[in-house]
Design brief:
- It contains four helices and two strands.
- The chain has one domain.
- Helices cover 81% and strands 3% of the residues.
- It has a two-stranded antiparallel ribbon.
- The model has no long low-confidence stretch (mean pLDDT 88).
- The chain is mainly α.
- Helix 1 packs antiparallel against helix 2 and helix 3 packs antiparallel against helix 4.
């Protein structure tokens, strides 16, 4: 059943995303606590967490089916591009907006940005980064 598979895939993505979000926030908060500028802290968390997300998404969420193929290097590159847009560019823009314009705490601002960027990451990963092709 395709619908049931999609639901479980979304659940697995949510579990991986939750662990990745927690890791990302811990890395970000640790960097900010150590005096690293919040945008640089976001970049550090981004680089490490995209690799983490790709590994678990490739292995656990968007698994290849029988007769399907996907280039690991191409999906890794696409994952960095997808997360580069949502997790770095958009998240940084939202951080700047929330911190500088709305005067929110850098800690709260990061959490608010996740509400927007996480759903976008699922869509880009499912339909682009981890897209498979059928083999003959």
């Amino acid at each position: 059943m395709k619908v049931n598979q999609d639901v479980w895939q979304f659940v697995r993505f949510g579990l991986v995303g939750l662990s990745n979000t927690l890791l990302s926030y811990l890395l970000y908060a640790s960097c900010v606590y150590m005096g690293i500028h919040y945008l640089a802290a976001n970049a550090v968390a981004f680089i490490l967490c995209v690799l983490h997300a790709w590994y678990w998404s490739n292995r656990y969420v968007f698994r290849k089916g029988d007769g399907e193929t996907r280039s690991a290097w191409r999906s890794l590159l696409k994952t960095y591009v997808a997360y580069g847009f949502t997790g770095l560019f958009l998240a940084s823009l939202l951080l700047w907006l929330f911190v500088e314009q709305c005067r929110l705490s850098a800690y709260v601002a990061q959490l608010l940005g996740l509400v927007i960027t996480v759903p976008l990451n699922f869509i880009l990963n499912k339909f682009w980064s981890f897209k498979t092709t059928k083999t003959v």
